[in-house]
Specification:
This protein is mainly beta. The protein contains no helices and 11 strands. A hairpin with a 4-residue loop joins strand 7 (68-73) and strand 8 (78-83).
Length: 126
């Protein structure tokens, strides 16, 4: 098990940018595939982006493709979500998630992740 702590959320105007960070405890971070999910008020939690343990493969929801970038720094045990051209519909609590290894991994399926952070609020004003 690892512990995940998100940071970097806040209030931003439409068109602005934010970078979320997820710091992960433990010495085996490089063995974990990572994902970002979000939950807007009154809606179910949804997939945003994911990255393989090596960082070579990334996945994005269609709604954020071209605007968001997921990356990781295995030396710092941290995964990032760079969010540009933000829209009011991006407003949500953003969660970081981790799963050990990639066997059977389905990047967009939140049920495949077994470690979650507490979430960080992102609010985009129009």
């Amino acid at each position: 098990q690892v512990q995940l702590v998100e940071s970097g959320g806040g209030l931003v105007q439409a068109g602005g940018s934010l970078r979320l960070s997820c710091a992960v405890s433990g010495r085996t971070f490089s063995s974990y595939a990572m994902g970002w999910f979000r939950q807007a008020p009154g809606k179910e939690r949804e997939f945003v982006a994911a990255i393989s343990w090596s960082g070579r493969t990334t996945y994005y929801a269609d709604s954020v493709k071209g605007r968001f970038t997921i990356s990781r720094d295995n030396a710092k045990n941290t995964v990032y979500l760079e969010m540009n051209s933000l829209k009011p519909e991006d407003t949500a609590v953003y969660y970081c998630a981790a799963v050990l290894g990639t066997t059977g991994w389905a990047p967009r399926d939140q049920k495949k992740y077994d470690n979650w952070g507490q979430g960080t609020q992102v609010t985009v004003s129009s």
